[in-house]
Amino acid sequence: MAASTTISPSTSFVANKNELGFSGFVTSRLPSAKRFGGGKPGRKVVAVMAPPQKAERMPATTGSVKNAMTMTEKIFAKASEKPKLSPGENVWVNVDVLMTHDVCGPGSFGIFKKEFGQNAKVWDREKVVVIPDHYIFTADERANRNVDILRDFCKEQNIKYFYDITDLSDFKGVCHVALAQEGHCRPGEVLLGTDSHTCTAGAFGQFATGIGNTDAGFVLGTGKLLLKVPPTLRFVLDGEMPNHLLAKDLILQIIGEISVAGATYKSMEFVGSTVESLNMEERMTLCNMVVEAGGKNGVVPADATTFEYLKDKTTKRYEPLYSDGSARFLSEYRFDVSKLEPLVAKPHSPDNRALARECKDVKIDRVYIGSCTGGKAEDFLAAAKVFLASGKKVKVPTFLVPATQKVWLDLYTLPVPGSGGKTCSQIFEEAGCDPPASPGCGACLGGPKDTYARMNDAKVCVSTTNRNFPGRMGHKEGQIYLASPYTAVASALTGYVTDPREFLQ
Amino acid sequence: MAAVSFPSTTFAPQSTKPNPKSVFPSPSNLSFSSRSCPSFPLTPLRCSPLRRAAITVACASADVSSSAKAFRGLCYVVGDNIDTDQIIPAEHLTLVPSNPSEYEKLGSFALCGLPSSYTTRFVVPDATKTEYSIIIGGANFGCGSSREHAPVALGAAGAVAVVAESYARIFFRNSVATGEVYPIEVEDRVCEECQTGDEVSVLLEEGGGRLINHRTGKEWKLKPIGDAGPVIEAGGIFAYARKTGMIPSAA
Q: In which domain of life is the source organism classified (chain B) (predicted)?
């Protein structure tokens, strides 16, 4: 599989996805369970369902096999200005974007000032994106003070991108969705954020991961961070997506397969025809929960869908990078998506996977649709689809928390296909849901006691969010079933955990 | 900003000469006699003036400058997958760790998210400090959020080390970056063989070290700290960066 030309990893091109496509199966044998740096044994190749159908060889995108790298390795190589890297190496990488919010911003700025001096300036005022989103609709004094701290710092540093909450024209909402909507996610780049779900941006074919305040303080001053190159687990998802499944089901399937520590320190690469068929928001959902498997980052190769999404959002030049055909992956997992079924993650772990239909006797008290995982426009459109198919009203309180201003507006303006021109908000109202709440993280992580939809009693909730550890949404004895928007709505309509095929044929 | 040079560095363990200012010089091969160790007065773990750790430094009869790191105290035992919401529930995240009084408050909430099946609390109500300086955990300790408040809360409460089967990535990184707690790995299911309240010693030596349960007399080998060693050794990511010339020394 030697290429005829040698192309360095930093060649820039805007690729036609078919030239470098990852559709079809890799027939060249990948080394199974190659271990890097010790630790628990990697999982073997798992053929989950039907055997491969097509044999399609992929052209290598760089030169000799010796230099073959995965997408994540290539991004690291480019960001650390090295010609090649191997997993396990610790390198200083250049950061393209640093994001922070109201929970971790104050602490990060505090460390920055302490370490670099009270008069220090951030390394690049255009590369820091500050997005208050966690505790912004609360009376809690400290929470409000924290947003003030963000504002003061951004003013002093003349930060270009500060999405303040005081002026609705600036306000965005949940950081990970806002980053994408505002064009801060670009293929081939390094994006770090003081939030574990920063990995969401990997949907754009970039390296994106969560860091703590101290690391963020360091990046603020230097624009660099010491990172270890992760090995990559490859997930090949093929087959036509059934009309009752969403990306949430796919990632719950994967997390259930490899466990909450299955991807610790590793990169998760998602390829295959199903992945290619997903829109950007669905790809974001996929990458969002990479951290729930312990993953360092998730990536989806950039393609026409990506470029189309980015067209009206950014004018910055970017350089997509792709795994070489002969790159080495730690393990490869294959799924025939056409055979999968709607899932839930039962209390109290994201890897506590179960078929939704097997939980139909679980009586629930409420449903929550929101967060970076399940509160995007596509998630609400999906929810509306099930309400439309059912025509009935919900049996339990159903909370809707759009992730951002844009999503909120979409709920009130976008016509839902097949509804005769109705908007999501109309459909939700007719179904008896609570009116869409102010955009933000909401009750996904509990938060201050007066947070909308916070679980203050021991209730059973089906949620489109990302974690269900004890106390996650507030009450320690609360029971959270993680699910897709389809499954969440189906459950709201029956009052029990319900497979959406009850409504979607 | 002043121009800085960024040499490309791959992580390599560095041998550090004993720093007269530091109480803990670099680890060396030293065998410990656990019975004949004199107790030393309380000593802070790192340079943060905010730490008041209840640790006892046990040193062998050899001279202080060549002693390895050692902690001795009561242990608090938890299970697998202790996520950051259990370590510090989200409602307390309005506390800013770089603010001294809020740092102390964070400590008072450390591990308050553990379910009520944990009848002994890590920090008793109305207290800000814990009696347990060493936390013993299972697999995937610290999973979940990237909130640095998690290792900070543990450290602020008075924990000095966590000894667990494995760690979630961001928690481990934050522990190393802040220096708040030593994240130590052990091969065995130590969490099943120790009980909350057992007096234990954690001895860090070159190549790993040992965990000793003084109640049962049992000993376990600790895994070497690995690539994070030089960063912890230096005192966190900033100190390490200054040491290796990545950023200028603090004014």
A: Eukaryota
Residues of chain A short of pLDDT 70, as ranges, are: 1-66
Mutation for testing the A interface, residue in B6, B10, B94 having most A CBs under 10 Å? B94
Q: State the Cα–Cα distance between residues A23 and A51, nearest whole angstrom.
A: 15
Dihedral (Cα; B9, B15, B21, B24), 10-degree rounding: 110
3-state secondary structure of A346: coil
Query: What is the tens place of the pLDDT at every residue in A83-99?
Result: 999 999 999 999 999 99
Helix (H) or strand (E) holding B185: strand B182-185
3-state secondary structure of A213: helix
Share of chain A above pLDDT 70, in %: 87
Q: Does B92 touch chain A (CB under 8 A)?
A: no
ipTM metric:
0.84
- Within an 8 Å CB–CB cutoff, is residue A412 touching chain B? no
Q: Which residue has the tokens 């950007």?
A: A280
Query: From the CA atom positions of chain A, what is the Rg in Å?
Result: 22
* Range 19-78 of B in CB contact (< 8 A) with A: none
CA distance A120 to A98: 17
B47-99: pLDDT as tens digits: 343 343 333 333 333 222 333 689 999 999 999 999 999 999 999 999 999 89
Within 8 A of B146 by CB-CB distance, chain A residues are 104, 194-196, 198, 210-212
